[in-house]
Write a structure and sequence with these properties.
Blueprint (H helix, E strand, L loop, with lengths): L10 E6 L7 E6 L7 E11 L1 H8 L14 E9 L22 E4 L2 E2 L5 H4 L10 E2 L11 E5 L3 E3 L6 H4 L2 H13 L7 E5 L3 H12 L3 E5 L3 H9 L8 E3 L6 E6 L4 H10 E9 L5 H6 L4 H7 L2 E4 L5 H13 L8 E6 L3 H10 L4 E5 L19
Parallel strand pairs: 10-11, 10-13, 11-12, 13-14, 14-15, 16-17
Antiparallel strand pairs: 1-2, 3-4, 3-8, 3-17, 4-5, 5-9, 6-7
Helix pairs in contact: 4-5, 4-10
Length: 371
């Protein structure tokens, strides 16, 4: 994949969602970076259940038409002009990056002025613009991103590892909001990529993870993976009370189980959203919350600092992720990747825009049928 001769010249491969329920695989013009932006050649982009939901069911924050993809790693190939009036309330990244730098893109663009931003919760910014939702994302050979959203990839970190920074950031935000402490029991419902990252990050914080996963294929895989924490347990159903419960599965039954498993003064983290019909039908007993002094907290996305912390964790080697990649696919095989996510037949799916199928290292699903 070669860089365009100049910013904005040439055409590129991209996936575009024009209406919910379908997408088009097209050749489109290469975007041009605006003031305070960089043009990034996308080297790898992650595919997650949020992308599946966005494409097949829509999303509250989706503006159409849109190039999806909020897990993006690549190389700066061009810089836009400096902004005419730099925002003083947002860190100045204009001098920190140059053409050729490898970067992870924090998917949010925040204002820095609103109450949420001022208290360090820019993921809840009232003017938040999310890559892949409000502005074009990484399911393309090139994308533009604000310099304020870029984080340099440490030299010791591969790009396949670095792209895990986005889902790991969301997990770090959830554990932060849970006030997870050393020695606490951490219940995690779901052993997909997010649930597995929650398990591994929770163990590093000194908690004892208990992963609940009814799918025996997936449960066996994560339990036997090289990066699985020695302190973690994996079961089809909850076997103990927990201090913190994080639901990393979009299933109301998981939330029902998680609430029942909470110890007195336990904290439930609403990490995975539900489809509208399931959300409308879900019920929780406020009496149980009252008598057991339970705490419920939502966790949506992540902040810029979580991206920095995630890259530091990954670069330090304490949290392994290479054993979670089950599919490496060209962008043209997005349908195959979406099916793998929908059917839970793999773990982490990576897409490589602009790379022909024969050049992708194709690993079969590591979630095997149990005989």
């Amino acid at each position: 994949m070669s860089a365009p001769g100049a910013a904005g010249e040439g055409r590129m491969e991209a996936v575009v969602v024009h209406e919910v329920g379908t997408y088009a695989h097209l050749r489109v013009p290469v975007p041009e970076p605006g003031p305070g932006e960089a043009l990034i050649e996308v080297h790898v982009t992650g595919l997650c259940r949020t992308d599946l939901k966005l494409i097949r069911h829509g999303h509250r924050d989706l503006d159409l038409p849109r190039v999806p993809g909020e897990e993006v790693v690549g190389e700066i190939v061009a810089l836009g002009p400096p902004p005419s009036e730099p925002e003083q309330h947002i860190h100045d990244s204009s001098a920190a990056f140059a053409v050729g730098d490898r970067v992870y893109v924090y998917p949010g663009l925040w204002c820095g002025r609103c109450p949420s931003c001022r208290r360090g919760a820019e993921n809840l910014c009232r003017e938040m613009r999310i890559m892949g939702f409000h502005r074009d994302g990484g399911f393309a050979e090139y994308t533009t991103a604000p310099l304020q959203s870029l984080i340099a990839i440490p030299d010791t970190l591969s790009e396949e590892q670095a792209v895990f920074a986005e889902p790991l950031s969301c997990c770090l935000n959830a554990l932060e909001l849970a006030r997870l402490g050393e020695g606490e029991a951490l219940g995690i419902w779901g052993a997909g990529p997010a649930g597995t990252l929650l398990c591994r990050a929770g163990a590093l914080l000194g908690a004892t993870p208990h992963v609940v996963e009814p799918d025996q294929r997936r449960r066996n895989y994560v339990a036997g993976a090289p990066g699985a924490p020695a302190s973690a347990s994996f079961a089809a159903a909850v076997a103990t009370q927990v201090d913190v419960a994080v639901v990393a599965a979009g299933d109301p039954r998981a939330y029902t189980e998680a609430v029942k498993a909470l110890s007195p003064r336990g904290r439930l983290v609403v990490f995975s959203g539900l489809l509208p019909a399931a959300d409308d039908a879900f019920h929780i007993s406020l009496n149980a919350v009252h008598y057991h002094e339970h705490t419920l907290v939502g966790a949506y996305g992540c902040c810029f600092r979580h991206g920095q912390a995630a890259l530091d964790l990954l670069a330090g080697g304490a949290l392994r992720v290479d054993d979670l990649i089950s599919h490496r696919l060209p962008l043209a095989e997005l349908a195959r990747g979406l099916d793998a996510v929908a059917e839970r037949s793999g773990m982490k799916v990576h897409l490589y825009p602009g790379v022909p199928a024969q050049a992708c290292v194709r690993t079969p699903s590591t979630v095997k049928e149990t005989t």
